[in-house]
Design goal:
The structure holds two protein chains of two kinds. Helix content of chain A is 22%, strand content 28%. Chain A has a five-stranded mixed beta sheet. In chain A, strand 3 and strand 4 form a beta hairpin. The radius of gyration of chain A is 12 Å and the shape is globular. Chain B is α+β, with helices and mostly antiparallel strands. In chain B, strands 3, 4, 6, 8 and 9 form a five-stranded antiparallel beta sheet that branches. The two termini of chain B are 22 Å apart. The chains are: A alpha+beta, B alpha+beta. Chains A and B meet through loops of A and strand 4, helix 2, helix 3 and strand 8 of B.
């Protein structure tokens, strides 16, 4: 099961890219995606508890099941205005 | 209509659209770049957004402002990219029959914007350093 994940602000800098492809087994959840990213990029560890996650533009929880083809977005605390 | 723009915000156009025969009050709020933070000189702010989601969130704030308060019109524009001191990063325009509701709605929109819209700002200081501004968990 594959999809795309977008990174913003501090998360983009830690990942060294604005986006990446994800490829995880059927039944994977949002937290599995976060864990796989942290495994390859341990530098995101301190940010992880503060991230909001969106799937296809809607906020989701860590236990939400990933949908095939979904666009995920990892969103650090926001500071617009 | 909610907008994100890399160019300077045209506040005159926003204000002109907000003036209506059924409204006696128009509040125009500008959020502008400040040249200092915690005693350090700020050269500019740089904004980025998850644009599709941010636009939807801004449009939702406009609609909710009209539902929650006695206001007839609400429009929010947020700038992205680099914004030097004195220039506006955000403009909120609210029109209402009476000023009380317009003031309340204008403040509510800015408070909500800071927690509900996926936009981030980075401060660049005179000493060459820069940092992401401490944020609020998105809800």
């Amino acid at each position: 099961m594959q999809g795309k994940v977008l990174f913003f602000a501090q998360m983009r800098e830690q990942m060294g890219a604005a986006s990446a492809a994800w490829d995880l087994p059927e039944g994977s959840r949002v937290r599995d995606l976060l864990a796989s990213l942290e495994a390859s990029h341990p530098g995101i560890g301190p940010l992880r508890p503060h991230l909001a996650v969106a799937m296809n533009g809607e906020l989701v929880r860590a236990d939400t099941m990933l949908a095939a083809g979904a666009e995920l977005a990892l969103l650090p605390p926001v500071s617009g205005g | 209509m909610a907008e994100l723009t890399l160019a300077a915000i045209d506040q005159a156009a926003l204000q002109a659209r907000a003036i209506r025969a059924d409204c006696g009050a128009v509040i125009v709020f500008l959020g502008t770049t400040r040249d200092h933070h915690d005693g350090r000189r700020v050269l500019q702010l740089a904004y980025e957004a998850y644009e599709s989601m941010a636009l939807e969130a801004l449009a939702r704030l406009e609609r909710e402002a009209c539902e929650r308060f006695e206001v007839s019109h609400c429009e929010v524009t947020h700038r992205l990219g680099e914004v030097p001191p004195t220039e506006a990063s955000v403009v909120v325009v609210v029109s209402a029959a009476h000023r009380g509701a317009a003031y309340e709605a204008s403040r509510w929109v800015m408070d909500e914007l800071k927690a509900r819209v996926p936009i981030w700002k980075r401060e660049r200081f005179e000493d060459g350093n820069s940092q992401w501004v401490d944020g609020t968990p998105l809800r």
